[in-house]
Amino acid sequence: MKLQGKVLNWNDDKGYGFVEPNGGGERAFVHVKAFNPRTRRPVNGDFIIYELVYDNNDRYKAENIKFSTDVKTSNKKTTLPHTIRNIKHKTKKESGLGMFAICIFCIGLVVSTLFEKLPAIIVGVYLLFSCITFMAYAIDKSAAKNGRWRTSESTLHFLSFIGGWPGAYWAQRILRHKSSKQTFKRVFGISILLNLVGLIWLHTEKGTHLLTQIASIFSINSTT
After folding, report:
1. What is the pLDDT of residues 36-50, one digit of tens each?
2. Which label site among 1, 123, 190, 204 has the fewest CB atoms less than 10 Å from its CB?
Protein backbone atom coordinates (compact mmCIF):
# COMPACT_ATOMS: atom_id res chain seq x y z
CA MET A 1 0.00 0.00 0.00
CA LYS A 2 1.35 3.42 -0.97
CA LEU A 3 1.38 6.19 1.60
CA GLN A 4 2.13 9.88 1.44
CA GLY A 5 4.11 11.67 4.12
CA LYS A 6 6.52 14.42 5.04
CA VAL A 7 10.29 14.03 5.43
CA LEU A 8 11.56 14.89 8.94
CA ASN A 9 14.94 14.92 10.72
CA TRP A 10 16.81 14.52 7.45
CA ASN A 11 20.58 14.13 7.83
CA ASP A 12 22.01 14.75 4.40
CA ASP A 13 25.59 13.81 5.41
CA LYS A 14 24.47 10.33 6.43
CA GLY A 15 21.72 10.11 3.79
CA TYR A 16 18.82 9.17 6.00
CA GLY A 17 15.91 10.57 7.98
CA PHE A 18 12.30 9.77 8.76
CA VAL A 19 8.88 10.21 7.21
CA GLU A 20 5.67 10.92 9.05
CA PRO A 21 2.56 9.85 7.12
CA ASN A 22 -0.22 12.32 6.41
CA GLY A 23 -3.11 11.80 8.77
CA GLY A 24 -0.99 10.04 11.37
CA GLY A 25 0.44 6.57 11.59
CA GLU A 26 3.78 4.82 11.97
CA ARG A 27 6.87 6.97 11.46
CA ALA A 28 9.24 5.18 9.09
CA PHE A 29 12.97 5.22 8.40
CA VAL A 30 13.99 6.80 5.07
CA HIS A 31 17.28 6.15 3.27
CA VAL A 32 18.43 8.03 0.20
CA LYS A 33 18.99 4.74 -1.68
CA ALA A 34 15.27 3.91 -1.38
CA PHE A 35 14.33 6.73 -3.75
CA ASN A 36 13.33 5.42 -7.17
CA PRO A 37 14.15 7.27 -9.32
CA ARG A 38 16.76 9.28 -7.44
CA THR A 39 16.17 12.68 -9.09
CA ARG A 40 17.61 14.79 -6.27
CA ARG A 41 18.56 14.76 -2.60
CA PRO A 42 15.62 15.08 -0.20
CA VAL A 43 15.33 17.89 2.35
CA ASN A 44 13.22 18.40 5.44
CA GLY A 45 9.64 19.19 4.53
CA ASP A 46 9.58 17.24 1.24
CA PHE A 47 6.41 15.30 0.59
CA ILE A 48 7.02 11.78 -0.64
CA ILE A 49 5.03 8.75 -1.75
CA TYR A 50 6.31 5.43 -0.44
CA GLU A 51 5.62 1.84 0.51
CA LEU A 52 5.73 0.94 4.20
CA VAL A 53 7.62 -2.26 5.09
CA TYR A 54 8.79 -3.87 8.32
CA ASP A 55 12.50 -4.79 8.16
CA ASN A 56 14.69 -7.27 10.02
CA ASN A 57 15.74 -4.63 12.54
CA ASP A 58 12.20 -4.50 13.96
CA ARG A 59 11.45 -1.08 12.53
CA TYR A 60 9.31 0.43 9.80
CA LYS A 61 11.07 1.76 6.75
CA ALA A 62 10.03 3.39 3.48
CA GLU A 63 10.74 1.70 0.13
CA ASN A 64 10.13 2.62 -3.51
CA ILE A 65 10.08 6.29 -2.60
CA LYS A 66 9.10 9.02 -5.05
CA PHE A 67 8.78 12.75 -4.57
CA SER A 68 5.13 13.83 -4.76
CA THR A 69 6.03 16.57 -7.22
CA ASP A 70 7.62 14.03 -9.58
CA VAL A 71 4.48 11.86 -9.51
CA LYS A 72 2.19 14.83 -10.27
CA THR A 73 4.41 15.94 -13.15
CA SER A 74 4.45 12.43 -14.57
CA ASN A 75 0.66 12.17 -14.36
CA LYS A 76 0.25 15.47 -16.19
CA LYS A 77 2.58 14.36 -18.98
CA THR A 78 0.68 11.12 -19.49
CA THR A 79 -2.81 12.60 -19.10
CA LEU A 80 -2.35 15.56 -21.45
CA PRO A 81 -1.41 13.59 -24.59
CA HIS A 82 -4.29 11.19 -23.87
CA THR A 83 -6.71 14.13 -23.63
CA ILE A 84 -5.37 15.62 -26.86
CA ARG A 85 -5.78 12.28 -28.62
CA ASN A 86 -9.38 12.05 -27.40
CA ILE A 87 -10.14 15.56 -28.68
CA LYS A 88 -8.56 14.84 -32.05
CA HIS A 89 -10.43 11.56 -32.34
CA LYS A 90 -13.72 13.23 -31.47
CA THR A 91 -13.08 16.05 -33.97
CA LYS A 92 -12.26 13.59 -36.74
CA LYS A 93 -15.40 11.59 -35.96
CA GLU A 94 -17.59 14.70 -36.07
CA SER A 95 -15.95 15.84 -39.32
CA GLY A 96 -16.60 12.43 -40.83
CA LEU A 97 -20.29 12.58 -39.87
CA GLY A 98 -20.56 16.09 -41.34
CA MET A 99 -18.97 14.99 -44.61
CA PHE A 100 -21.30 11.99 -44.76
CA ALA A 101 -24.36 14.20 -44.23
CA ILE A 102 -23.24 16.63 -46.96
CA CYS A 103 -22.56 13.80 -49.42
CA ILE A 104 -25.95 12.20 -48.80
CA PHE A 105 -27.70 15.55 -49.07
CA CYS A 106 -25.94 16.62 -52.30
CA ILE A 107 -26.40 13.21 -53.92
CA GLY A 108 -30.08 13.31 -53.00
CA LEU A 109 -30.48 16.79 -54.50
CA VAL A 110 -28.71 15.91 -57.75
CA VAL A 111 -30.54 12.60 -58.23
CA SER A 112 -33.91 14.16 -57.43
CA THR A 113 -33.25 17.00 -59.87
CA LEU A 114 -32.14 14.66 -62.66
CA PHE A 115 -35.27 12.53 -62.23
CA GLU A 116 -37.39 15.70 -61.99
CA LYS A 117 -38.54 14.93 -58.47
CA LEU A 118 -37.37 18.37 -57.38
CA PRO A 119 -37.10 21.58 -59.42
CA ALA A 120 -33.56 22.71 -60.24
CA ILE A 121 -34.19 25.98 -58.39
CA ILE A 122 -33.93 24.06 -55.08
CA VAL A 123 -30.27 23.36 -55.85
CA GLY A 124 -29.76 27.04 -56.62
CA VAL A 125 -31.37 28.05 -53.33
CA TYR A 126 -29.00 25.84 -51.34
CA LEU A 127 -25.98 27.12 -53.25
CA LEU A 128 -27.04 30.74 -52.72
CA PHE A 129 -27.70 30.42 -49.00
CA SER A 130 -24.54 28.35 -48.50
CA CYS A 131 -22.46 31.17 -49.99
CA ILE A 132 -24.27 33.77 -47.88
CA THR A 133 -23.80 31.70 -44.73
CA PHE A 134 -20.10 31.14 -45.42
CA MET A 135 -19.61 34.90 -45.83
CA ALA A 136 -21.57 35.52 -42.60
CA TYR A 137 -19.18 33.21 -40.74
CA ALA A 138 -16.15 34.93 -42.28
CA ILE A 139 -17.46 38.37 -41.33
CA ASP A 140 -18.23 37.22 -37.78
CA LYS A 141 -14.76 35.75 -37.33
CA SER A 142 -13.14 38.95 -38.58
CA ALA A 143 -15.33 40.95 -36.19
CA ALA A 144 -14.31 38.70 -33.29
CA LYS A 145 -10.62 39.27 -34.03
CA ASN A 146 -10.93 43.05 -34.42
CA GLY A 147 -13.43 43.73 -31.64
CA ARG A 148 -16.26 44.81 -33.97
CA TRP A 149 -19.98 44.15 -33.72
CA ARG A 150 -20.61 40.40 -33.89
CA THR A 151 -23.21 38.45 -35.85
CA SER A 152 -25.59 36.79 -33.41
CA GLU A 153 -25.58 33.02 -33.14
CA SER A 154 -29.33 32.96 -33.79
CA THR A 155 -28.70 34.61 -37.18
CA LEU A 156 -26.06 32.03 -38.08
CA HIS A 157 -28.41 29.23 -37.05
CA PHE A 158 -31.26 30.75 -39.06
CA LEU A 159 -29.10 30.91 -42.19
CA SER A 160 -28.17 27.26 -41.69
CA PHE A 161 -31.80 26.28 -41.17
CA ILE A 162 -33.09 27.92 -44.37
CA GLY A 163 -30.55 26.10 -46.52
CA GLY A 164 -27.11 27.49 -45.75
CA TRP A 165 -25.89 24.64 -43.54
CA PRO A 166 -23.44 23.22 -46.14
CA GLY A 167 -21.74 26.63 -46.27
CA ALA A 168 -21.78 26.78 -42.46
CA TYR A 169 -20.14 23.37 -42.26
CA TRP A 170 -17.31 24.37 -44.61
CA ALA A 171 -16.89 27.68 -42.77
CA GLN A 172 -16.45 25.80 -39.49
CA ARG A 173 -13.85 23.51 -41.05
CA ILE A 174 -11.92 26.04 -43.17
CA LEU A 175 -12.19 29.15 -40.99
CA ARG A 176 -12.11 27.24 -37.67
CA HIS A 177 -15.00 29.39 -36.46
CA LYS A 178 -17.73 28.09 -34.13
CA SER A 179 -16.19 24.63 -34.48
CA SER A 180 -15.47 23.93 -30.80
CA LYS A 181 -18.46 25.39 -28.93
CA GLN A 182 -20.55 22.34 -28.07
CA THR A 183 -23.87 24.14 -27.49
CA PHE A 184 -23.58 25.85 -30.86
CA LYS A 185 -22.69 22.59 -32.61
CA ARG A 186 -25.68 20.80 -31.10
CA VAL A 187 -28.10 23.39 -32.51
CA PHE A 188 -26.24 23.28 -35.82
CA GLY A 189 -26.65 19.50 -35.87
CA ILE A 190 -30.40 19.94 -35.42
CA SER A 191 -30.41 22.29 -38.44
CA ILE A 192 -28.72 19.60 -40.54
CA LEU A 193 -31.19 16.97 -39.36
CA LEU A 194 -34.18 19.19 -40.14
CA ASN A 195 -32.85 19.90 -43.64
CA LEU A 196 -32.38 16.19 -44.32
CA VAL A 197 -35.90 15.48 -43.07
CA GLY A 198 -37.20 18.37 -45.18
CA LEU A 199 -35.55 16.98 -48.31
CA ILE A 200 -37.20 13.62 -47.69
CA TRP A 201 -40.57 15.29 -47.04
CA LEU A 202 -40.41 17.15 -50.37
CA HIS A 203 -40.51 13.75 -52.07
CA THR A 204 -43.82 12.85 -50.40
CA GLU A 205 -47.22 13.58 -51.93
CA LYS A 206 -47.75 16.64 -49.73
CA GLY A 207 -44.27 17.94 -50.46
CA THR A 208 -44.71 17.51 -54.20
CA HIS A 209 -48.06 19.28 -54.01
CA LEU A 210 -46.47 22.22 -52.18
CA LEU A 211 -43.71 22.51 -54.79
CA THR A 212 -46.32 22.43 -57.55
CA GLN A 213 -48.26 25.25 -55.91
CA ILE A 214 -45.11 27.36 -55.50
CA ALA A 215 -44.11 26.73 -59.11
CA SER A 216 -47.58 27.75 -60.33
CA ILE A 217 -47.44 30.98 -58.31
CA PHE A 218 -44.09 31.88 -59.86
CA SER A 219 -45.34 31.02 -63.35
CA ILE A 220 -48.42 33.23 -62.87
CA ASN A 221 -46.31 36.15 -61.65
CA SER A 222 -43.90 35.75 -64.57
CA THR A 223 -46.72 35.89 -67.15
CA THR A 224 -48.26 38.98 -65.56
Report:
1. 888 888 999 999 999
2. 1
